[in-house]
Amino acid sequence: MKRSTLFIAVLAAMSLPSQAMELVDDGVNKVTLGGHLSVQLSNYDWYQGIDDSTELNANSPRVNLALTRDMGEGFTVEGKIESGFNMDEGGNSWTTRLGYLAVKHDSYGRLSAGKEWSTYYDVAWWTDVTIAFTSDQLGIYSNDTAGDDTGMGRADQVIQYRNNIALGEKGRLSAGVQWQGENGALDSRVGGSLIYQYDQARVGIAYVGGDVIEDYELYGATIIDLSKHQDTLESWQLSAAYGKWSKGLYVAAAYQQGTNTEAGIRFAGDSIGFEAIGSYGFKSNTTAFVSYRQLESDGDVDVSSNYGGDYADDGDGEWNESFVTVGVHQLLSANTMIYTEYNVSTGDDRNGDNQYALGFRLFL
């Protein structure tokens, strides 16, 4: 088995059940088109747990183009560009989600540069597999962004290296490291992940972090004030999973400790996040799931001034939110799906409740 197999499987699983459309394959060069379009009827705000009126939206449509070239001697060059766009109303349409170049080898691993899913996400995505009420308690989309500058989600201007080692009958070990240079208020940042997999079971640990070298501003507001907040923005995560989403039994859980990862979206300071999900994929191409997500502050709350939701302190001076979500996804064909998800707030400090989403998705 080639040593790059696990990483390829990870990338494929992130996009399931998407099946990219092959445009060119001449044995040396390959070009594929991917992405998805959705229409969704729902009653929740972008900040999960905040009620809104029922409306139609597009739920993050995107299109991507992937290119690979066989260079011989086991080397492959690959590139990918992915853009999100506005398909349900006027206004600005295109945003860059991904854009990178990479060189990979069966033995030497994979080196990439550009805008790409982080090594932190190599572990975090295990609980981020639903459609409407997705992972939002592990700091992935830190500081009210896609984890761009922080390197926790779709990392900006990042250099990454990944490789894995087969351990024979004892499983497989994979590792990834990444680096980002200084960017505004954030000093250079490093991250990494380590994953052990045996059969269908896997456990992983990930870290990303760096110093804050000046007051950090976002959307015109100061979200990390060095006169009163720590000068670090970092996160540790430990996750475990078993099975494959939509294929029989799948369970996953993740625990996170962060510093200032919630600034700009909830609060500045230390945070503790936890997520768990259990699902079963039936032979009828139906996947049913239940998930639990919780986020707490580790200390008193300093709510971000541009926080867009309702915060209702129960008197303890700390942040405590949690949600239970149930849902069903039904594949109608290899590239079409209908889905419904229902979300209930079970924490002390978020007011949202009885939220739902009903949608249709077309995979390219």
UniProtKB/TrEMBL annotation:
It comes from the Bacteria. Keywords: Membrane, Signal. Residues 9-349 form the Porin domain. GO terms for cellular component: cell outer membrane. It is found in: Cell outer membrane. Residues 1-20 form the signal peptide. One of its GO terms (molecular function) is porin activity. InterPro entries: Gram-neg_bact_OMP, Gram_neg_porin_domain, Porin_dom_sf. It holds the Pfam family Porin_4. It is a multi-pass membrane protein. GO terms for biological process: monoatomic ion transmembrane transport. This is Porin.
